[in-house]
């Protein structure tokens, strides 16, 4: 398994890369990349001695585009909701499953904050 952070290595997809630890040519292989909601096969290279895996930037980028198209990038259990309006403010209804899981009640307090490109809602 190759983590997303290890995929920056490798260069043009036709040249066999060399393992930095073993100084050996790496073998072409079908590797898999794990995403939050599934795994995708991807062409890459593996060191015959230490098993170090490398995926070219182009192949990793193509795989992540496929993962996005297939909805594999969404966090597990994520639900799409429409923003509604309550008076002059925007509102989002909390799904019943989450209401039960966190034992939320009307009037209970939550913290809401932005984190990178997400909006996080946390029970207090
Ligand atoms: Zn190696």
Order of helices and strands: EEEHEEHEE
The biggest beta sheet, please? 3 strands, antiparallel
Number of strands: 7
What would the principal axes of the Cα set say about the shape?
A: elongated
Which kinds of small molecule does this entry bind, naming each only once?
zinc ion
Mean pLDDT across all residues, rounded? 85
Tally of domains:
2
Uncertain regions: pLDDT < 50 for 5+ in a row?
A: none
Measured by DSSP, the beta-strand proportion falls in 25-35%
Radius of gyration: 21 Å
Task: Please tell me the CATH architecture of the largest domain by its name.
Answer: Roll
Order of strands, widest sheet: 1-2-3
CATH topology of the largest domain: Ubiquitin-like (UB roll)
- State the name of the first-level CATH class of the largest domain: Alpha Beta
Number of helices: 2
Distance linking N and C termini: 37 Å
Helix content: 10-25%
Structural class: alpha+beta
Structure in words:
It is a single chain. With 124 residues, this protein is of the alpha+beta class. 15% of the residues lie in helices and 31% in strands. The strands form three sheets. The protein has a three-stranded antiparallel β-sheet. It has a two-stranded antiparallel ribbon with strand order 4-5. The chain starts with 26 loop residues before the first strand and ends with a strand. The mean pLDDT is 85.
What can be said about this structure in brief?
This protein is an alpha+beta fold. The protein has two helices and seven strands.
